[in-house]
Amino acid sequence: MKERILAEAERLFWKYGVRSVTMEDIAHQLGISKKTIYQHFNDKEQILYQVIQDKTGRDQSEMDCMVTETSNPVEEILGVLNMIRKNTDQVSPNLLIDIKRYYPQAFALFRQYKEGQIMRSILENIQKGISQGIYRSDINPTILARLRVEQIELAFNHDLFPSDQYSMHDVQAELMHHFVRGMLTEKGFTIYNQYVNQYNHEVK
Amino acid sequence: MKERILAEAERLFWKYGVRSVTMEDIAHQLGISKKTIYQHFNDKEQILYQVIQDKTGRDQSEMDCMVTETSNPVEEILGVLNMIRKNTDQVSPNLLIDIKRYYPQAFALFRQYKEGQIMRSILENIQKGISQGIYRSDINPTILARLRVEQIELAFNHDLFPSDQYSMHDVQAELMHHFVRGMLTEKGFTIYNQYVNQYNHEVK
């Protein structure tokens, strides 16, 4: 039951944000009573915390797989973009705003994931790219890794990219491609162009 | 007298931030009494407001000159980097933090300058670059202009780039060069490399 509650809560939070989803809504969707939910969780914040913990864990595993399965840092970073697309296609722009404003513990967990695992993954990607001659050797890995981490949150910022003017995926894709291109060597560009052409071909 | 007060206040604010500089300090440095300052300004916030208004006006003129004097968008954007270096070499990391936290009207003025003139200058630079075949035609100018505006503030962020680990100029330069490279076409790279080689040569 606990797993079903978490899965349904995640689906509703992602679709509508956290504030507008009530314990009643979650119970109703599952065809159970609120009492059943309270047997497993104290409040909505506790559910949210668990949802974020599970979700970041799964994202991290998926990212680790990508690193093992891809053959170079450019393919890896474009793979992450696909992952982000899958994750943000259905996400409400309220989700991160709600968490940031009203659920400090859950936000701290998200922040910790961002500063820890995401930061580390990006830094490793950059260092690998430099050592393979795909990224320029005169870039500063820590400054650019920090830039990339901040870009992820930037794309969620409603004031900067209002959702009636921008799709979140377009913003993420634009920032990600620009980020990669800004690091590429000539050799890197050859590899990058292959993936981009191949991808455009698959989409058409 | 008003001009002398503004010039001295600007120098002290830039060097130490706003909070730690008193009316007494400004008067003392000029060898005048506090009373003389109060004949021209009601309080420190009014001085700060005027300082920012003058400074952004001068920066804008300098930027406009650069656009007329340079022969292409890459030279222009690297010229802006030099301008930023001159401006941030002596700047206290407290300056923007103080203004953001304690002087809302002055911060609103800075914000207005950023959202208005800086945003417009960057957008024009990008559009010119695309039309000259120096920047890629498949980039989204408004998304990238927004990214660049946010990067300027990012480099001032003490939490992200602590001043005991990073020089503000290095961060600005890293972000700016990465920003330009992420937009360049092959033709653009040829022009960019010329300027970078020339600059490195001059520095040595």
Automatic annotation (TrEMBL), chains A, B:
Pfam families: TetR_N (PF00440). Residues 1-59 form the HTH tetR-type domain. Keywords: DNA-binding, Repressor, Transcription, Transcription regulation. InterPro entries: Homeodomain-like_sf (IPR009057), HTH-type_TetR-like_transc_reg (IPR050109), HTH_TetR (IPR001647), Tet_transcr_reg_TetR-rel_C_sf (IPR036271). Residues 22-41 bind DNA. GO terms for molecular function: DNA-binding transcription factor activity; transcription cis-regulatory region binding. This is TetR/AcrR family transcriptional regulator. It comes from Spirosoma foliorum.
